[in-house]
Amino acid sequence: MKIWFGKIFGAIVGLLSGGPFGLLVGAFAGHLLDNALVRVLSGGATAAAGKGDQREVQQVFFRTTFRFMGRLAKADGRVSEQEIDAASQIMAQMGLTGAQRQSAIRFFTEGKDPATDVDADLQRLRDLLKQRHGLAQMFLEIQLSVAYADGRLSVEERRLFDRLCRQLGIGAFQFEWINSRVQAAMSGQRQQYNTRPDAPAQLRNAYAVLGVAVDASDDELKKAYRKLMSQHHPDKLVAKGLPEEMMKLAKEKTQEIQTAYDLIRKARAA
């Protein structure tokens, strides 16, 4: 972006008031003014572009979330009641109503259709998330929580997750770490509804939710806890482009992490 107004105006004023020397001084002052205007205008344009990018991230994240969810549900040839309930629960947790809920249902239905190019959605999402670390992990956690609605991952679902990880650039080790954490969290939720919860199993799940070994030191435990809380901080994720409707899901993730950490600390202090 180039602006010449300051240079021209400064040169004219300088020439009229100080002759040739004044022309040089005025032109230089105008040059400084032009540079300042360029920074202001460029900053505004960058901010506007940034807001536009974030809106696109939110839209693509929302669409791809429910399309891939639909593809997962149909992976083994039929959509189970548990999978439908899990998708509905995600929509309820997000507080989706009216047009938003209808859009989510439409995307879910499109995802079940083999003709829908979910890989293209994932590739676009990856392009948008290159500078937004943490959102890909959140996307994977949401999908895994739905996939574990029936208590396990089928062979077909596992293959879909392999494709998802390749598209989003998630390594095998990172997937297994996230997978074990989500599986433990889902198991912990089922324990909550058990009239006679298994305390040792709850404690093992708590360690798995934090992604640490049972014999981890207090410092290692605290470090893992703080890292996960930072990664799942709702405000940080929304600032990166997580749809605001999904903030409730992020809050629930942080609550799971907090509950697991508190349970371990209580057990260690006993």
Automatic annotation (TrEMBL):
<dbReference type="Pfam" id="PF05099">
    <property type="entry name" value="TerB"/>
</dbReference>
<dbReference type="InterPro" id="IPR050817">
    <property type="entry name" value="DjlA_DnaK_co-chaperone"/>
</dbReference>
<dbReference type="GO" id="GO:0051087">
    <property type="term" value="F:protein-folding chaperone binding"/>
</dbReference>
<keyword id="KW-1003">Cell membrane</keyword>
<dbReference type="Pfam" id="PF00226">
    <property type="entry name" value="DnaJ"/>
</dbReference>
<dbReference type="InterPro" id="IPR029024">
    <property type="entry name" value="TerB-like"/>
</dbReference>
<feature type="domain" description="J">
    <location>
        <begin position="205"/>
        <end position="269"/>
    </location>
</feature>
<keyword id="KW-1133">Transmembrane helix</keyword>
<protein>
    <recommendedName>
        <fullName>Co-chaperone protein DjlA</fullName>
    </recommendedName>
</protein>
<keyword id="KW-0997">Cell inner membrane</keyword>
<feature type="topological domain" description="Cytoplasmic">
    <location>
        <begin position="32"/>
        <end position="270"/>
    </location>
</feature>
<keyword id="KW-0812">Transmembrane</keyword>
<keyword id="KW-0143">Chaperone</keyword>
<keyword id="KW-0472">Membrane</keyword>
<dbReference type="InterPro" id="IPR036869">
    <property type="entry name" value="J_dom_sf"/>
</dbReference>
<dbReference type="InterPro" id="IPR001623">
    <property type="entry name" value="DnaJ_domain"/>
</dbReference>
<feature type="topological domain" description="Periplasmic">
    <location>
        <begin position="1"/>
        <end position="7"/>
    </location>
</feature>
<dbReference type="InterPro" id="IPR023749">
    <property type="entry name" value="DjlA"/>
</dbReference>
<dbReference type="GO" id="GO:0005886">
    <property type="term" value="C:plasma membrane"/>
</dbReference>
<comment type="function">
    <text>Regulatory DnaK co-chaperone. Direct interaction between DnaK and DjlA is needed for the induction of the wcaABCDE operon, involved in the synthesis of a colanic acid polysaccharide capsule, possibly through activation of the RcsB/RcsC phosphotransfer signaling pathway. The colanic acid capsule may help the bacterium survive conditions outside the host.</text>
</comment>
<dbReference type="InterPro" id="IPR007791">
    <property type="entry name" value="DjlA_N"/>
</dbReference>
<comment type="subunit">
    <text>Homodimer.</text>
</comment>
